[in-house]
């Protein structure tokens, strides 16, 4: 008999027009977060919770982290979780749901690769942090809450600015990467090749085609690409294919053989070798890894309902 899937709810939210933050604020959020709540849930937006009072836990799939006053949670989309209160007590939380992707699109419209790289980093894992240990991040979150509570003139513009700063702080927290200006300067000479790979990774790609997309000779292109990306063109092609493979593994249950062919590998052995080279583990191991939130959703019996 197959093991019955654990129930998890999808609580989706509709973002108001011309907004990138939905705020759930006020005394109505002073409640017991254990009563009437059965199982984990996940959302369609980045969730930030701020705890003012009461003790409990942020419950994830495989761990439970104690929560208390002056702590805040940061939970990526599609990550099963729930906040709970200690038995017989109430907690005071306020909640922000943030459309980080739209914020980035507003600022970097033509740089899809950069946007996806940022989202990948800030959605790496859920966090529960103490305000005293992360004062800058804490103040940014409180500023967003203040703006959303008061809604003074120009509050939307203010919130958009704070969200962008929030994303920067999350990037710094999750990974120390070079600033966007440097990345754009480095990649501008080969942007045609990067776009070509993004659009044609499923097919056979010749280096001469990439050179042509950048209006360079093949030998000059190879040299410029290596200097810019610190990898050979063929390695970049494989990198994009493996990234696309990860998306398929996360969101579908098709076989690894089908994944390999759909992302441009003609042999499963080549796919497995390149996957382990880039990711460090096999595709099968990665499917079960702790960071693969979306893939793990396939193991649940999911019901959908509109958020609170």
List keywords for this structure.
Arc Repressor Mutant, subunit A; 308 residues; alpha+beta; 13 helices; transcription; 6-stranded antiparallel β-sheet; DNA-binding transcription factor activity; 2 domains; 3-stranded parallel β-sheet
Question: How would you characterize the overall build of this protein?
Answer:
The chain is an alpha+beta fold and 308 residues long. It has two domains: 169 residues, Jelly Rolls, CATH 2.60.120.280; 110 residues, Arc Repressor Mutant, subunit A, CATH 1.10.10. Helices cover 45% and strands 20% of the residues. The protein has 13 helices and twelve strands. The strands form three sheets. Strands 2, 3, 5, 8, 10 and 11 form a six-stranded antiparallel sheet that branches. Strands 4-1-12 form a three-stranded parallel sheet, with no helix packed on it. The two termini are 36 Å apart. About 2% of the residues have low confidence.
Number of helical regions = 13
Low-confidence stretches: 300-305
Coarse morphology: globular
List SSEs in N-to-C order: EEEEEEEEEEHHEHHHHHHHHHHHE
Radius of gyration: 22 Å
User: How far from one another are the termini?
Assistant: 36 Å
The overall pLDDT, averaged over residues, is 86
Q: Report the count of strand segments.
A: 12
Strand residues, percent: 15-25%
Biggest sheet, in brief? 6 strands, antiparallel
CATH topology of the largest domain: Jelly Rolls
- Report helical residue fraction: 40-55%
GO molecular function: DNA-binding transcription factor activity; sequence-specific DNA binding
Protein name: Helix-turn-helix domain-containing protein
Organism: Defluviitalea raffinosedens
Keywords: DNA-binding, Transcription, Transcription regulation
